[in-house]
Amino acid sequence: MIQRISILLLTMVLLAGCPPKSSNGVRNALLEGKELLIIYTGNTFGELKPCGCDKEEEQGGIERRMSYLKSARTANTLLVDLGDNFKEATRQGKLKAEYLTDSMLRMQYDAVTLGEKDLVYGNKFLRDLGPVPWVSSNIALEGISLPPYRIKQFASGLKVAVLAVADADLFYASPDSNVKVGDALHSVEKILPDLIALEQPHLVVLLSHMHREQGLQLLEVAGVDVVINGHIETDADQIDMTPVVKGQKIFVQPGPLGQKMGELRITWAAGGSKVYDQKMVRLDAKVPFDPEMARLYEEYNAKVEDLFLASLAEKRRKKTAPVYATEKTCLTCHAPAHQAWAASRHGHAYATLQKVNKSYDPECLICHTTGFNQPGGFISEIDTPGLKNVQCEMCHGPRLQHSQAPRGGFAHLAVQACQRCHVPKHSPKFNYGRYWPRIQH
Ligand code: HEC
Ligand code: HEC
Ligand code: HEC
Ligand code: HEC
Question: For residue 21, what pLDDT is reported?
Fold first, then answer.
């Protein structure tokens, strides 16, 4: 689905053919017919590639983002990112952050601002990422130079200024004391007049990293034409991508997890007034994979396998007494239930991962095996071959004792188990009434 909005707003200064008087107006009149395409992303949250748990809903990933960019980008394109690209403070999270940034460097972004999530690995990590076109008008990071604004001069003659601010309150929880975040509004109001006088940009784009309501207020700032706002808290966040127009100004937001690309097309009409055309482009199965990004993803995947193999030694050392009886034991007394299970997709969940070369990715094993990262649970195919797949005990709980001395009274508890794995991100269509009959036993 494409959300589209077109707005034509003519400036009121053009009374009875009088030429605009201000120097700004004269400059703007020369813009008639010029075009700019702003492509905006953000809130990617480490999502290098969608998991593929729901084929129809599958969207996003660097492979599709790059091929979209290769076809959508023109000489008049400004590519910006709103931050919150990183996610969890784990080694795998850090690896994803490195690869995501690497992909963005190859995509040649014009400006990237920072969200509080992007500080999760500290300043040194950010500095070592390479020549990312960071921009922030109110964040100071020890050891990194963050330009307060960036200017892009197009061959068409168009000159665009990009500023960025973040909400200081979002950063309070940051454990990193080498970060200073000033007041957002105050910082823009301080920088903008001088910037306009010095650079005389035709368009001022403000990237804001904050809650929607706060970002919207920045539209009021004199001199700002476009506000693009980003921020995500959890991967289940619903983000309102509807643009807001106020006079000649516009406010837009990228969606979650890199699933869609924001496109804001600006054309200058007679007298310098702007016409906005905004849409969100789904990075779904119709968008092909870019081969360079596919190779980069494979490289990441191989590193995840290395991390997984390296973690095995410790897991083996810490291996505890068994707590799961395994499905083979349940089979001995519950043959009909076992038959239904073996025929269901729960009974093949590990093979599903093998088919997509993901059977050593902890982020997938957690829902596609039995007890991964739990005491007595799945470690690897070699260590715990009996704990592959979503077994009986993922829903009925560890039942070693029950299988030795059977007693009932716990079947009803299994109804609560579904929601641990059938979360919106991985199973958006889940509905107990419709799903249970498919695995009934
Ligand atoms: C939070 C739990 C969870 C995690 C984490 C998870 N999955 Fe899934 N996966 C599911 C569920 C639930 C389904 C079934 C969804 C449905 O049909 O509603 C599924 C289905 C799938 C399917 C089958 C799609 C189809 O239609 O045939 C694939 C492939 C898959 N997952 C791959 C992965 C990969 C790869 C990862 C790691 C990157 C992963 N999953 C992580 C829960 C998870
Ligand atoms: C430990 C995680 C986990 C739990 C708990 C879980 N599921 Fe699943 N479920 C999965 C995974 C993973 C798949 C996809 C397996 C595959 O195709 O590889 C799946 C697939 C399914 C499917 C097949 C979907 C389809 O499109 O045909 C149904 C139905 C289903 N689950 C129902 C349930 C119900 C009902 C519950 C709770 C009683 C439940 N699941 C609990 C992980 C889980
Ligand atoms: C995806 C979750 C899930 C898996 C996997 C699962 N079950 Fe169940 N099981 C349930 C639910 C939910 C119920 C029904 C609970 C209710 O309605 O009270 C149930 C009911 C049962 C019952 C009671 C049936 C009755 O007539 O009262 C038995 C026995 C049982 N399961 C055994 C098994 C065995 C054995 C396996 C593995 C071979 C298994 N289950 C796998 C979720 C699961
Ligand atoms: C040695 C035989 C035996 C084994 C092995 C066994 N069960 Fe049972 N199971 C029973 C018997 C007998 C009952 C009925 C107990 C009762 O109603 O008091 C039962 C009942 C159940 C019930 C229904 C509980 C209820 O609330 O009525 C579930 C669910 C269940 N078993 C799951 C499992 C699972 C999962 C495994 C494997 C981990 C397993 N059983 C292994 C014999 C066994």
Answer: 34
Lookup: tokens for 290: 């870019």
Nearest residue by C-alpha to atom 12 in ligand 1: 422
What are 193's two structure tokens? 């007049």
Is residue 136's pLDDT more than 80?
yes
Ligand 4 atom 35, closest CA:
392
User: Among 327, 333, 395, 412, which is best to mutate for testing ligand 4, by the most ligand atoms less than 8 A from CB?
Assistant: 333
Share of the chain above pLDDT 90, in %: 87
User: Residue whose CA is closest, atom 34 of ligand 4?
Assistant: 330
Rounded distance, CA 168 to CA 309, Å? 40
With a 6 Å cutoff on the Cβ, whether 351 touches ligand 1 is: no
pTM here?
0.92
Whether pLDDT at 15 is above 80: no
Ligand 4 pocket residue status of 323, Cβ below 6 Å: no
368 CA to centre of ligand 1 in angstroms:
7
Confidence of residue 178 (pLDDT cuts 50, 70, 90): confident
CB of 427 sitting under 6 A from ligand 1: yes
Q: Is the pLDDT of residue 387 over 80?
A: yes
Mean pLDDT of 218-246: 96
Tokens at residue 344, please? 């269901």
Q: Is the CB of 281 under 6 A from ligand 1?
A: no
SS3 181: strand
User: Could you tell me the domains of the chain?
Assistant: 4-282 (3.60.21.10), 324-439 (1.10.1130.10)
Closest residue by Cα to residue 117 from 141, 144, 85: 85
Q: What is the DSSP letter of 58?
A: -
Q: If we measure between CA atoms, which residue out of 265, 234, 254, 277 comes closest to residue 60? A: 254
Which ligand is nearest to the Cα of residue 392, counting in written order?
A: 3
Q: Ligand 1: does its nearest atom lie under 6 Å from the Cβ of 344? A: no
Q: What is the pLDDT of residue 174?
A: 55
Q: Is the CB of 396 under 6 A from ligand 4?
A: yes
Distance 230 CA to ligand 4 centre (A): 50
- Quick one: how far is CA 85 from the chain centroid? 6
Q: Between 44 and 172, name the one with better pLDDT.
A: 44
Ligand 4 within 6 A of CB of 325: yes
Phi, psi of 136 (to 5 degrees): -160, 130
Q: Give the pLDDT confidence of 418-430 residue by residue, as tens digits.
A: 999 999 999 999 9
* pLDDT at 35 (0 to 100): 97
